Amino acid sequence: MEPLTTLSVEALETRVTGILQTHGFSAPNAQAVAHVIVAGERDGCKSHGLYRLEGVLKVLKAGKASGVSIPVVHDTSGAILEVDAGGGYAPASFVAGKEALVQRTRELGLAALVIRDCLHFSALWHDVEALAEEGLASLSMCPSYAFVAPSGGTKPLFGTNPFAFGWPRRGPHPYVVDFATSVAARGEIELHRRAGKPLPEGWAIDAQGNPTTDPQAALEGAMLPFGGHKGSAIATMIELMAGAMLGEFMSREALDFMGGGDLLPRHGALVLAFDPARFAARSGRDPLAEGETLLTAIEDQGARLPSQRRFATRAGALARGITLSEAEWAMLGRLGQGPSAL
User: Fold this and answer.
1) What's the domain range around 265?
2) How far is Cα 48 from Cα 46, in angstroms, rounded to an integer?
3) What pTM value is reported for the model?
4) Do 116 and 255 share a domain, yes or no?
5) Which of 129, 206, 261, 280 could be bridged to 221 by S-S, CB 3.0 to 4.6 A?
6) Which keywords fit this entry according to its UniProt record (predicted)?
7) What are the tens digits of pLDDT across the range 39-75?
8) What confidence tens digit (pLDDT) does each residue in 243-286 have?
């Protein structure tokens, strides 16, 4: 059995922050990126944890992203706020725009945060959880790379196009949904390839449009949307709302701009926030109490709410630390040597 190393969440975040700075990130950008990478590891989401670190560094070394850009917030005093990432990483832009988004949502009842020209690599639950902690409901979405074929199609056109929804609760955790509109995240296919494991049926097609369980053939072909035509329609909505509507890249354009899918994608992102209290003000009803009625009814049937497993894993990591494999520990040591290690 390979030896394991356990670090506290704080210690691992400090380690990852230091590695990013060694590669040329400014402190604010390094902290924002490290936080979401370690959050993925903390919550047991390996496809968005330390696995993402090398990809984040490679796109910086290739000159396709900036680790020092300062996000610029543009406020028109209306419902739409914009953050120009300047080719920087999305987490720092969300941090830069969050306070203004919360304030504007409370003023108007709803507001939107548009993030322009960002390098995206992370899950979206960070956005909606942060807003739920402020008592707001929210949606977060972005395109990706054209790796997914439309339902009934044979060639990549959509991104994995993640979509997240958060709803505030009075307990310790909000209701959070975060999923790719493909059957699985592309990172999951890569992890299957590295482990030499076949894919479940229905995840992908090969370059000729035939169903495949071979991870390498899937990476060379196309992934499939979840739920057939329904997932395909949601993926289309995200391309339109977080790409075309913002005047930012859609997934096909992002792939062409970056010269292929070997590096992480650069595009825009959209976060929509809602104040439940403002929406329900004239009803005389408490929207959070009404929400609890529904969520409790789901649990009373023995069903598990989305993210419950992730929250349980988080509690364990906060109490006992994050255990890294020998390979993960070695990767941190290698990447800590600087750009020459890539």
Assistant:
1) 71-180+227-306
2) 5
3) 0.92
4) yes
5) 206
6) Oxidoreductase
7) 999 999 988 899 999 999 999 999 999 999 999 999 9
8) 999 999 999 999 998 888 888 899 999 999 999 999 999 999 99
- At residue 143, the 3 state secondary structure works out as coil
Angstrom distance (rounded) from CA 193 to CA 201: 15
* Residue 110: inside a domain: yes
327 and 341 co-located in one domain: yes
CATH of the domain at 218: 3.30.60.50
**Would you say residue 66 lies in a domain?**
no
Q: Cite the active site residues.
A: 47-48, 188
Cα 301 from chain centroid (whole Å): 30
**332 and 265, same structural domain?**
no
Give me the residues paired with residue 223 across strands.
Answer: 148, 204
Which pair of structure tokens corresponds to residue 336? 């800590």
In the structure encoding, which two tokens stand for residue 258, read together?
């970056």
Number of domains forming the structure of the chain: 3
Element (H, E) at 210: none
Q: Which residues contact 247 (CB under 8 A, 6 or more apart)?
A: 268
Q: For residue 280, what are its two tokens?
A: 């329900």
Q: How far apart are the C-alpha atoms of 66 and 53, rounded to whole Å?
A: 15
Long-range contacts at 305-309 (CB < 8 A, ≥ 24 apart) = 305/175, 306/175, 306/176, 306/177, 306/178, 307/125, 307/173, 307/175, 307/176, 307/177, 307/178, 308/173, 309/44
Q: What are phi and psi of 118, to 5 degrees?
A: -115, 155
Length of the chain: 342
